Amino acid sequence: MSDLYHRFGGGLTTIFIGLVLAWLAGMVLAPNLMMIDYALRPNLPPADIGGPRDVYSLDNILYLANEGVHRAIFYKTIWASALVAFLTLIVCYPIAYWLAQTASPNQTVIVLIALTIPFWINEVLRTLAWYILLAFRGPLNALLLFLGVIDEPVRWYGNAGVLAGMVYAYILFMLFPIYNAIESLDKSQIEAARDLGASTWRTHLRVVIPHAKAGIATGCVFTFMLAAGSYVAPALLGAPGSRWFTEIIYNWFFEGGDWNRGAAYALVLLVLCLVVVLATLKLARVNLTDVAK
């Protein structure tokens, strides 16, 4: 804080801090407080709002605990989001390591531009591209039929389609934190490990991954949170048997007309996601300061 006052002066720094606090209050604090308020109140006709029946309770949250189908979809969304984070990590780690330690500057620029340009397009359009790619008569089935891998077209929509779409959608949120972390690793440490006889796996396990754990944890946190709160990919690439919890929330708000129960479902998802994220950071021995860097 003192650095800001020293650099920009008291007046300008006060304006900056005021704008940040106003943004946090209006865009973060107020919506979440309203969601909590809705979640703890019953869904009543306008005439009954503020009346004797309009009292705070946990009925909307307990409804989720007693609704077996919704509870199962909730648990599936949590572990599936963790699976998305894990698969994205598996895909991104080799790319990030190659970019940070092996690739030439020109190769790094070309690859980063190639990965970034598709994300200039809206997420809905990118997901629709996957919808076309995975279609029953789409390019993927046509290629597999041509190569003789399959004898008839496969319906890729469902859990596999949702996972593939999400891994692609959130790849940059995993790649950049890991790349930034590995880039700061001195190459001499890797060379020293090899000179001492360490295998490639042991070098990564004992040198690279411990150094990059903050970037890995940051990427996993971002990817998990985005996957758990995603709606577009499950709605377009999913099937009736692969519903996502966000689809249930959407149905409560826009089809069932019960904003209170929808807010309760959203609140439970938010709280559990925060618990999972904090537990992950604790296990990885990474604090929030490292994530924010």
**Helix and strand pattern:** HHHHHHHHHHHHHHH
The count of domains is: 1
Q: Which range does the strand content fall in?
A: under 5%
Whole-number radius of gyration?
23 Å
CATH topology: MetI-like fold
User: Helical amount among residues, as a percent range?
Assistant: over 70%
Q: How many helices does DSSP assign?
A: 15
- Tertiary shape: globular
Q: Would you identify the regions where 5 or more consecutive residues have pLDDT less than 50? A: none
Write the layout of secondary structure elements.
Elements: H1 2-39, H2 59-66, H3 68-102, H4 105-116, H5 123-133, H6 139-147, H7 159-169, H8 171-183, H9 187-195, H10 200-211, H11 213-228, H12 232-237, H13 245-254, H14 259-283, H15 288-292
Helix pairs in contact: 1-14, 2-14, 3-7, 3-8, 3-11, 8-11, 9-10, 11-14, 13-14
Polypeptide structure, described:
By secondary structure, this protein is mainly alpha-helical. It has one domain: MetI-like (MetI-like fold), CATH 1.10.3720.10. The chain is 75% helix and 0% strand. The chain has 15 helices and no strands. It has helices at residues 2-39, 59-66, 68-102, 105-116, 123-133, 139-147, 159-169, 171-183, 187-195, 200-211, 213-228, 232-237, 245-254, 259-283, 288-292. Helix 11 (213-228) packs antiparallel against helix 14 (259-283). The mean pLDDT is 87.
